[in-house]
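Appendix B, Record 12. Input sequence as logged:
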Amino acid sequence: MKQGEDINAVFLRGEALTDPVYSHTAGGRRFYTFPICVERLSGRTDTLNLLVSEEDLGKTPVSAGDSITVEGSMRSCNHVEDGRSRLILSILAKSIVKEEGPPENRIELTGTLCKPPVYRVTPLGRELCDVMLAIRRKYGRSDFLPLILWGKNAKTASEFSSGTSIACKGRVQSREYIKKTEQGDIVKTAFEVSVAEVSEIE
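Logged structural output:
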């Protein structure tokens, strides 16, 4: 870990669902985006948004249906829509390799809680805790990532406070939910880190 930066490392292996399409230009570099589908042990899948630079796509062209391995980091940005700010999450690829292999979905993070944790118990009695983690990167910027913890990890996280520094490991997951609007119900997709291991950094 470089001084002034936290750990933010993602490793994925799955299937590209579409060809890459142009996303935006930043710092004079063109970026493209496409979804990657990663199967869980349960048979369910997570569909995650990848961002990759034009240079990296030039080294490893990707097409729909390709099996790929990706190393990178999870990034956030605020998108204003209808006067409201919305957190957009994606995986910024640092390297892409076309190869076959078993599905992989791992993330390792260090960072600081920027809000008090929200602990609750489901109607079925399962404990869970929502945490928002601020992760420093260079040039004084930060990414803000939502974490969800279950069971004993939820209980542990519920005792943290805003400003607590933690280390965690888990996977990046997608889940659909229903948003009620005046025009009717709309199916939306949320992205978050499902935490398997967590500890406080003293």
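The radius of gyration is 18 Å.
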